[in-house]
Design brief:
Elements lengths: L9 H12 L10 H12 L4 E3 L2 E4 L3 E2 L5 E7 L9 E8 L6 E6 L7 E7 L5 E9 L4 E10 L10
Parallel strand pairs: 1-9, 3-9
Antiparallel strand pairs: 2-4, 4-7, 5-6, 5-8, 8-9
Amino acid sequence: MPGPKKGATRRTFLAGAAVVSVLPLGAARATPEAMAAAIKEVVGDKPIREGRVTLDIPPLSENGNAVPLTVSVDSPMTEGDFIRAIHVFNEKNPQPHVLDARLGPQNGKASISTRIKLGDSQKIVAIAETSKGEFFSASADVIVTLAACVEDLT
């Protein structure tokens, strides 16, 4: 692993981090347009077809701090036909591109499970990329009653 750049010090790093941390909370929010741009970065101009992807996320979440999410894709997962990646996007969190999971035929099945933070009610999109360069998707709207990162714990 390469060492730090010459001239970079702990002090300059901390000063830069302090500048980033004072940005207003509302300034760092994704939008539906930002989500569309993030999806375009992944798929380019290739068509995205609905189907083959199952997105399992609760339609109503009382707390956005840890929302369970499972994405599974119908695929034989053989050497010649498998899911190469699963991408997850959202439209209102600070970063629209939430997750990239790289897969291969050795996975046996195309399925991932995790928990994500949701800062507000929003649309979640899962896109599967096949070994043949095709893209399939599913989406879900999630209502969040208590947004992540704004809960007062005092």
